[in-house]
Amino acid sequence: MDGTDIITFLSDSGWGGGYVAVCEAMVARIRPQARIFHISHEIPVGDVGAAALVLGRIAPLYPPAVHVAIVGPGVQQGRRPLALSTVRGDLLVGPDNGVLLNAAEALGGLQTAWLLDQVRVRAAAGLPADRTCSSFHGRDVFAPAAALLAGAADPALCAGQLDPSTLVRPVQPLAETTPAGSIAEVIEIDRFGNVGLALRFCDLPPRLGHVQVDVVGEELPEWTARVVGNYGELRPGELGVVCDSWGQVALALNSASAAQVLLLDRGMKVRLSPAGQPSPDATEART
To answer: What's the sign of the alpha-carbon dihedral 195, 198, 202, 206?
Structure first.
């Protein structure tokens, strides 16, 4: 990749404690002309799946860039530090725990995998080799590597090639569709309580008016939801099935949190089955 001087940054560090700022400081020290765009630092702690989902959606919206993702348990404890080049020309930097691979696919596919070497990274960046910490690869490895790569440094300067088949693969969420209905995993709950499912809206049967919603493996009430074009079509207390901003199926309630009312959390599985026309109050929120 030619020098982009665009770096995106995603982590589960939060904004407190200076973790994000010190990574920014390392980039500024090595490549002061680089611009850093923060995707999110509010990923749930250690949630690789949530991070992979966000990175895979957002990274392709930028021009070719270096995308840094520092999320997940074991980032420092035995997870190999990676740089991945993609067909589109982007580079992805982060731990070998699956967080980067959805984005690599969204950026045209993985081209080359590199194993970052801390000593070589710091030497190439002009940093002291003896001022490192085994528990903060974000500052000591990932941020310096991103700064070098944003400046068009050859990855071979600070890394050796890896066999892509050895990379840790992300666990793909469940999504099954049959003529009788669909079962999909909850992959996202936004701050409004809308429930995103691992099911494309276009995979729902055409002209579907209402669906029965129940949670797989849980003794929870069944619901009837109306398939609508947007959130504004829902009546107060009515459960709806909508197409979210990413083309996925989402469950939503008018003026309430669908996740709280339906007692749903990420990783749970929901069954959607075709339903007949419900009674007028059948979809109102149960309290």
So the answer is: negative
